[in-house]
Amino acid sequence: MTTRLDIDRTDIVIVGAGILGASLAYFLARSGVYPLVLDRVGPAAEASGANAGMIGASGGTPGTTLPLSLLSAKLYDQASSELDEPIHFHRSGRLLLAHSASDLAERETYARERQRLGLNVEMLYGDEVREIEPILSDKVVGAAYAPDDGKIDPIRATVAYLNTACRLGARFEPGVEVESLIVSGGAVRGVVVNGQRVAAERVVLAAGAWSGIIAETAGIKLPVVPGRGQMLVTAPVQPVTPRVLRAVVIGMRQMDEGNVVIGSEVEFVGYDKEVAPMTLARYCRLIKDTIPALAEVTVQRVWAGVRPMTPDNLPIVGGVRGLAGLDLLTGHGRSGMTFGPASALALAEIILHGKTAIPIEPFSLDRFSD
User: Fold this and answer.
1) pLDDT, tens only, 182-217
2) Cβ neighbours of 238 (radius 10 Å)
3) For position 276, which CATH number holds?
4) Which residue, of 286, 307, 328, is where some domain finishes?
């Protein structure tokens, strides 16, 4: 069935209802600007719904993404009281585990760099790790401990931002696929959905791994490619740990309901979202080696999603030189939940005020210019 919108003109169109598009809609709507949000499926249908919900407030890279990760965590703190629905955000801490000498050296560098910046991160060695997390096996030889990091329910958080935005005046249309951008006079003037033209003063591409396909219709080469992430979730179990446990390959968090979410690497296999049993079996072995208490837990569900990856693993945020009316909010890779709200707030401030104090210069599309 083809969905036809009962609107042919709006001020701002946001393409994509993941955490980026949803939080942007909220930041705009609370300031009295009411965007139209379009998504070909629904909220959190792709990358925002296919991640483990691990929020590394300290996890950004100093000099580029660290300001985004720190600010996003603060925005989640605020959202817990501002939004109409709970987002299940907890600053319960994160352990970056080491299983080998090389892992340990990497974790030591991580801790040392953040300590220099005054962040609360410490190194633990041997049984010091098990004093905090007795569930860990002796194969864990150390860890960087970030007590101010945490976890979130990514689907609930995305939906909460979107629903609150709509209550404030934004509009959301699921099941509407943007086929192309309308370009006229050197500017983007709207979108085409299901053959229908919708005029807009501004269009924001927050369509994740599909952003490049849409941008290409306006002659924009956007270096965003799909990266598959495979996930699994266990049946509910008694409390295992309140913390996020992150090894080099995979990580885990326990949901409020008791289920344990586990994932995931990035695989460059195009838009293929098939689950590979061999990969998930390897994840299960890694978890059993790390947390023996989970060895006999039943796997309840497996799935895969597609993340928007860039060549330098940095997001793309801001306008497009030479093409007015188009903004980009994409390319956040496997860290959309960690960097997303801060990126969205930065773009909202640019839309509303023409500038932002959030340092987004490293995320300009211009960095990929020849």
Assistant:
1) 999 999 999 999 899 999 999 999 999 999 999 999
2) 7
3) 3.30.9.10
4) 307
Q: What is the mean pLDDT of residues 295-303?
A: 92
**Distances from the Cα of 34 to the Cα of 12, 14, 287, 341, angstroms:** 7, 10, 45, 17
Name the residue range of residue 255's domain: 228-307
Nearest Cα neighbor of 84 from 158, 161, 185, 174 is 161
CATH at residue 194: 3.50.50.60
Instruction: Quote the number of domains for the chain.
Output: 3
* DSSP secondary structure code for residue 83 in this structure: S
Burial environment of residue 185 by CB neighbours within 10 A (0 to 12, 13 to 18, 19 or more)? exposed
Contact criterion met (CB below 8 Å) for 109 and 103: no
For the whole model, what pTM was predicted? 0.97
Q: Do residues 234 and 218 both lie within one domain? A: no
Burial class of residue 147 (count of CB atoms within 10 Å of its CB; 0-12, 13-18, 19+): middle
